[in-house]
Amino acid sequence: MKAVLIDDEQHNLDNLKALLAQYCPQVEVSATALDAETGKKFLYEHQPDLLFLDIQMPGQTGFELLQSLSHYDFEVIFVTAYDQHAIQAFRFAAVDYLLKPVDITLLQSAVQRAMKQRQLKVHNQQLENLMHLLKTQQVKEDQCIALATTKETRFVRVSDIICCESSNNYTTFSLTDEEELLVCKPIYEYEDILKDYGFIRCHQSHLVNKKYIRSWKKEYGDFLLLTNGKEIPVSRGKKEEVKKALQF
């Protein structure tokens, strides 16, 4: 895989280039750039398969660089200092990121995933979804979330998710069209990124979209009856939190 590296600090570029040479021999570094403008020129010149991109750079940020492009025919691995807002966006769109200083094992895993993704497609829809999320203050109802199943990455409108149920490190998403998607991530990751979209963690194993709650049943314990007919338990520890979220 041909790669371009963009970071505003030379020692970061040198370090990443050395790590790739030693631990990811399948990656050939075609060019490195210290600013977004030069990096954009290299993207057009070298047509890389993979871009390692810093976010916070003087002049133009990494996000602004990507937003200036008309299409995304490469994979991106963001390499950045800790930024909670950016990391939430990365997780929402299911794109890879590495925190500085770069961990070798995580670097190798991210490169392997990028290779697999590259083999499956030319256009990077995950990156496009991330740019859509960052670029516009769109109505949250229209926002799509990337859900990685064992066969594909599905882009689902948040408003079409009724509830989520965990099973060990897997999460099942129930959708309005009655489809169910099994995703290879634990439910707590989705609680964190969906809480701003009206989702409530009512139980250790359940996360529900409150717009699909039909009623609160108390016949045999506390349960939320959803519009798809499912009855979701409300745990004792979550009871007051759920009441508050529903403005009881």
Automatic annotation (TrEMBL):
The lineage of its organism: Bacteria, Pseudomonadati, Bacteroidota, Cytophagia, Cytophagales. SUPFAM superfamilies: CheY-like. This is LytTR family DNA-binding domain-containing protein. Keywords: DNA-binding, Phosphoprotein. Residues 2-115 form the Response regulatory domain. GO terms for molecular function: DNA binding; phosphorelay response regulator activity. The modification 4-aspartylphosphate is found at D54. Residues 145-248 form the HTH LytTR-type domain.
